[in-house]
Specification:
Elements (H helix, E strand, L loop, with lengths): L1 H44 L5 E4 L4 E5 L7 E8 L4 E6 L8 E5 L6 E9 L3 E8 L1
Antiparallel strand pairs: 1-2, 2-5, 3-4, 3-6, 6-7
């Protein structure tokens, strides 16, 4: 009879240890989420090709596949801060290459704001 109770206690200890290990792994997963939400800020200083402006053809490209966060919308503003263009991006596939013709805005300096659901990044572009 003691063997049965001893076996049950051992089984409970093993199951309890597995549960604790799973909770620790889940905690580690949440720490990686924090890295994703702060990566949008890091994008501003990073020299990558996720946002690219073809100055010769006046086209702005945003490569969703190279971004590690989901975009909500894009906004183009002039230097006075007026919104010239806005588009919702949340329903586009994650492998989209978004193209925006900047020629209709004319020559000048503009700011491109990409917003996720939690943060945003602003890039300055020049149309010549």
């Amino acid at each position: 009879m003691q063997r049965i109770y001893g076996g049950l206690v051992l089984l409970l200890l093993l199951v309890g240890g597995t549960t604790l290990n799973a909770q620790t792994a889940a905690k580690d997963d949440f720490s990686s989420l924090a890295e994703i939400t702060t990566s949008l800020l890091d994008l501003e200083a990073d020299e990558d090709w996720s946002i690219y402006t073809d100055t010769e053809n006046h086209i702005l490209y945003v490569d969703f596949a190279k971004l590690n966060f989901n975009l909500n919308d894009i906004t183009i503003r002039n230097k006075a801060g007026e919104i010239l263009f806005q588009d919702q991006l949340w329903d586009l596939p994650v492998d989209t290459i978004y193209e925006l013709d900047l020629a209709p805005f004319g020559k000048g300096a503009y700011s491109v704001e990409l917003r996720s659901f939690t943060d945003s990044v602003i890039r300055d572009v020049e149309v010549e």
